[in-house]
Write a structure and sequence with these properties.
CATH architecture of the domain at 8-121: Up-down Bundle
Strand order of the largest sheet: 4-5-6
Mean pLDDT: 75
CATH superfamily of the domain at 8-121: Nucleotidyltransferases  domain 2
CATH class of the domain at 8-121: Mainly Alpha
Largest sheet: 3 strands, antiparallel
Radius of gyration: 32 Å
Number of strands: 7
Strand content: 5-15%
Order of helices and strands: HHHHHHHEEEEEEEHH
Helix content: 55-70%
CATH topology of the domain at 8-121: Four Helix Bundle (Hemerythrin (Met), subunit A)
Low-confidence stretches: 280-329
Structural class: mainly alpha
Length: 329
């Protein structure tokens, strides 16, 4: 019963404290699992506040990111906490470095959550402090009670009167001093030329955007590991649907509507214009090379197999296959 009376913020703070305690007692797997559960409570709260459906943690994260509730960096941090917790629960991962990283990301998530709540509270207070101001005439008649055509007509009459007075004044000045007309025409021509030049510059020089492409043939995997399920192999020059960076070795992309992973060292980022991006997306290689698996060659993956080991194995298989047939992968 006591737990039911706790607020969402108290439950989140309690989960963070429990994770820190598990980490200090070297219960690394339990710490990562606790981090994921605490994150799930936080994400459910954000979904309720933004009228988004409650369901699987990954689906809720995708909805929050698509609706602009969380930024790309926050989304990547939340996703990593979720993946580390799942791995610790299914594989018994008990790595102290990963547990420390998970706790640090959780602390950042809790801080970001507090900032969102404070921003929403401030917005509600500002909205509540605004009150409609009733303006009254000298006779005590409220302007709010006037007919709509009077409210619209009076400002229009004032504007037309001002325009008439300005034109009359300008006409008198032109009649008195012929140089005024030439000066006015010169100013109008200069203004029109400046506006035309600005419009042409905006049309010719659109802002550049970042496009991510493969520098060689590149495997797409279901998980960030060389032992993860191979979804497909992309040819060199393929434009990627970039989501974000998973870590120094792996990059998150969208593949067939789901998240997948490719080796970061074989992804090239370049600045192009929107028109050039369209050409880059349309011009993709139709053939795949006989290159070996191009995934991170530094460090070990979660399963203990390095990308360099997988590359050596594929090269041996490729040499054997080339001696008997010329088919490509």
């Amino acid at each position: 019963m006591a737990a039911e009376r706790k607020t969402i913020q108290e439950l989140i703070e309690e989960g963070r404290s429990t994770t820190e305690s598990l980490l200090s007692h070297a219960n690394y797997a339990e710490a990562m699992i606790c981090s994921r559960k605490t994150l799930e409570t936080l994400v459910q709260s954000l979904c309720r506040r933004n009228n988004l459906p409650i369901g699987d943690l990954t689906d809720m994260l995708d909805n929050l990111y698509r609706e602009g509730v969380i930024s790309k960096d926050v989304f990547a941090g939340f996703l990593k906490i979720s993946m580390l917790g799942e791995r610790a629960q299914s594989e018994g991962q008990n790595d102290p470095a990963l547990a420390s990283e998970s706790f640090e990301l959780l602390s950042q998530a809790v801080y970001a959550y507090r900032q969102m709540l404070e921003h929403q509270s401030s917005a509600r207070r500002r909205s509540a402090s605004r009150r409609p101001v009733r303006r009254r005439t000298s006779g005590g008649i409220s302007l709010d009670n006037l007919p709509p055509y009077v409210k619209i007509g009076v400002p229009l009459v004032v504007i037309l009167l001002l325009i008439f007075l300005v034109r009359s004044f300008a006409s008198h000045r032109k009649a008195a001093d012929p140089t005024v007309n030439a000066s006015v025409e010169s100013s109008e021509s200069s203004a029109e030329a400046a506006l035309t030049t600005e419009a042409e510059t905006s049309a010719v020089a659109p802002s550049a955007i970042t496009v991510y492409t493969t520098s060689t043939s590149l495997n797409v995997r279901e998980t960030p590991s060389t032992s993860g399920k191979l979804l497909t192999t992309l040819p060199a020059g393929t434009v990627l649907d970039y989501v974000g960076s998973y870590n120094d070795q792996w990059t998150i992309i969208n593949y067939n509507g789901t998240q997948a992973y490719v080796a970061t060292q074989y992804v090239t980022a370049s600045e192009v214009n929107p028109a050039e991006r369209g050409n880059a997306s349309a011009t993709r290689s139709s053939s795949q090379t006989d290159a070996a698996e191009t995934e991170p060659a530094l460090g070990s993956t979660a399963s203990g197999t390095t990308a360099a080991d997988e590359t050596s194995a594929q090269k041996a298989q490729s040499s054997s296959a080339k001696s008997s047939t010329s088919s490509t992968r």
